[in-house]
Amino acid sequence: MPVSPVSFNEPARADLPMNARELYLDHAATTPVDPEVAERIAQVQGDCFGNPSSPHAVGRRARRVVDDAREQILAALGCPAAGLVFTSGATEANALALHSLSRPDDSTLGLIATTSRDHDSLRAAAAAHPFAQNALLPLDANGCLDRQGVAVWLEQTGNDQPRLLTTTLVCGQTGTIEDVPALLQVIATTAVSCDVHTDATQAVGRLPVAFSSLGCSSLSFSPHKFGGPRGIGCLITQPGTQLRPLFPGSQQLAQRGGTEPVALIAGCGVAVRLASSRQQAEAERLATLQNDFEHRLIRLAAAAGIDAQIVGSGRPRSPHLSTIALTGIDRQAFVMAADLVGVCVATGTACASGSHEPAPALVAMNLPESIIQAAVRFSYGSTTTPDTISEALSRLQPLLQECGQRAGLTGS
User: Fold this and answer.
1) Domain boundaries 36-273, corresponding CATH code
2) Which end of the chain has the lower number of beta carbons within 10 A, N or C?
3) pTM to 2 decimals?
């Protein structure tokens, strides 16, 4: 049965009635910090301020906090023997994976394949890699990796070159879920060696994620997507993997230099543990909210003369995200207008905010331009309730009517 959401106070506005609050439907960008996580961070900041590399008692206490959090995270993700490197975020974790797995030594030019569903941190790192050739693989009509395209890429490359295929478990632009084990089966049939890095930033906490079951070479995520702190990310690797550090140093087995942020690491451990324990119930709750919001928004849009379509509806999607094209309505104008009535939504990933370019995955899906230019992302999380959905739709209804009239889609 669905459970009640974790309760959070909205900073500086919790005393306002629902109809006067900002309604946050952009949880795919970031999420409020869980109170238990915040409490743990504050406690560690005060009690374990030491440098975890210091040999004295204060340093050893800090080291135990880091080690306990590492064990907590790996256990929650079903891979207690895997490697784990803490980074400044998922962007750095992605860059470290590409830097290491595409070219494990200095002898060979590496090959990297990315897709338009990947986060810009992956695509940009691959494009800028000085010692690897970059290929952009095609997507299918639902925004997932085209498996035939994967096979063709593998067959066209020589077996003597190290290869890395990047995947995104849940697309931040459409919410569609990639079948990573099926991709690994495609690779296995080609008899070509290829590492697979999976960006699970939009998946951890929303879907059951077990690194050992996925079978990929590495996996990245950041806890700020599910109630954890910002400024910390994780890269999980197969046991025995030795990474090529982006920042040399003796810390973290010489795989990532720099003093570990003990309090953020502790907060990350708590966030992963909580998200894992709540995942099934929370997924059921969010799926109910997602279904309700989508159906009601489509009806309201239709009443305003607007054809609303769910992008990626032909494939399994994460329950926390809906990308809906309001045909005939400019996506950026709609997002700004929604903000003026206190509903926070997005046109795509937060890292691309302010960009006039459409979401790359939607372009790669070969969708009609009318869909691409009208796609708006709504995303749900721990603070989203049925009342949030109803109030948001109440505020958006007159906006849809006005948009429809201005676009000439409905009568005045």
Assistant:
1) 3.40.640.10
2) N
3) 0.91
